[in-house]
Amino acid sequence: MPKELLIQVAPEIASNEEMLKVHVSKLLHVSVSEIQHLTILKRSIDARQRAIKINLKLLVFYQGDEVQLDKITLPEYKDVSNAAEVIVVGAGPAGLFAALQLVELGLRPIVIERGKDVRGRRRDLKAINRDHIVDEDSNYCFGEGGAGTYSDGKLYTRSKKRGDVDRILRLLVAFGATPDILVEAHPHIGTNKLPQIIQDIREKIIEHGGKVLFETRVSDILIKNNEVQGIVTQHNDVIEAKKIILATGHSARDIFELLDRKKVLIEAKPFALGVRAEHPQSLIDSIQYSCDFRGEFLPPAPYSIVKQVNGRGMYSFCMCPGGVIAPCATSPGEVVTNGWSPSKRDQATANSGIVVELKLEDFKPFAKFGALAGMEFQKAIEQKAWHLAGETQKVPAQRLVDFTQSKVSATIPKTSYVPGTTSVELGQVFPGFLTQIMREGFVQFGKSMRGYYTNDAILHAPESRTSSPVRIPRDHETLEHLQIKGLYPCGEGAGYAGGIISAAIDGEKCAIKCAESLK
């Protein structure tokens, strides 16, 4: 009978199946030949001691046991060509998984995506990086797969209350992700692998009768007697439906403005804002693994750090080992940063958003904008950064220690941010209270992670799109908007998710509630 086993082993043993079998046989006091197969159920790194260990949860199959391999297959999707239609606005994780769930439940999704398909986006990303041209509908945030396609592909969520995380991971594996994401403590797909997975999801939706419209932007939501009737596109085409899942992402400012103009209830929401810090990956490795060289059996080290400074949380966000910093503006006249890693995480630099939690009271200077006050606060910082860096997609940058000492950096080395940098005293980018918190916080970071506080680290400003500055309120049970029947605010843009997994789960939940209301 298979035996479940929890063990700690050296990295070189964890990476070699034969060595692992030998190790397990000694622990169980059996010969190696008696062990037929090992299945790794969970894997994590324990770097708390100088001798780093790998934690493994194993299923050991002895000779004679029936080896049960986990077969991952897609659900039985129905042909929904003639089924009741539901409009899904946005083809990010929330929208795509909502559409898949609708197909599974026998409803026909009509996915409306303002940007291009996942391949077509690449030309526009090149234009941002090389020519400093921002396409408002096709960029790192907008287009098939949403911001998740080109922002690392992290699949870790701290919240286990949101829904079935394992179901989403298994669906991703069925669509081509490596099965390792079911095993790793902090699973990650990689920006280079996500596009094909996203494309395969879209093709599955279409294959079973769903519809996906690219380069189609919602210009109006039709509402009658507080009930949705459909949407109007930028070409004045009308698409009718009694159900709309609104999964636009955290950067769809025009949708927030549309809802505000139509007097549809929305609320300002706190979010976090700061900088993106880049260190040499070798430095982060030496800090986290307490060694001069991490070797071939350990992955590039991540880090996670949280401090309380003047009553505010300051913390790392979307940390990308072996990754790069990308330009994520969604309109001309602004600068925005984000980070991502390829699947191998093999770049020479590590970067992370380092952000400070904001409060609603911080948005008082923008009170005249009502529910959009936080969005305008965010926008003002992004526009100021654009002006200070030379009115291109170059980013304001400063060496870390120089920032804490209010000194303009004499030189900025080449960083992974392709459009380039401009040496700026970053205190000019942010409000005074935010600058002071970050200056104090970085000094504290250096006390916790010795070596982190260095002028070899370059700060890029701003990291401002951590989450939506707006919440679109919905009923706790039905998930419908509090005022508008048939409107389902969904995912990050509505304020109900924070990453690929939680957005996908929320998309599925909204689709299920949609289906229930149509019975």
From TrEMBL:
Keywords: FAD, Flavoprotein
Cofactor: FAD
Record-linked Pfam families: FAD-depend_C, FAD_binding_3, GIDA
FAD-binding domain sequence ranges: 84-117
Residue intervals of the MnmG N-terminal domain: 200-250
Domain FAD-dependent protein C-terminal: 270-466
GO molecular function: FAD binding
Recorded superkingdom: Bacteria
InterPro entries: FAD-bd, FAD-binding_protein, FAD-depend_C, FAD/NAD-bd_sf, MnmG_N
Designated name of the protein: FAD/NAD(P)-binding domain-containing protein
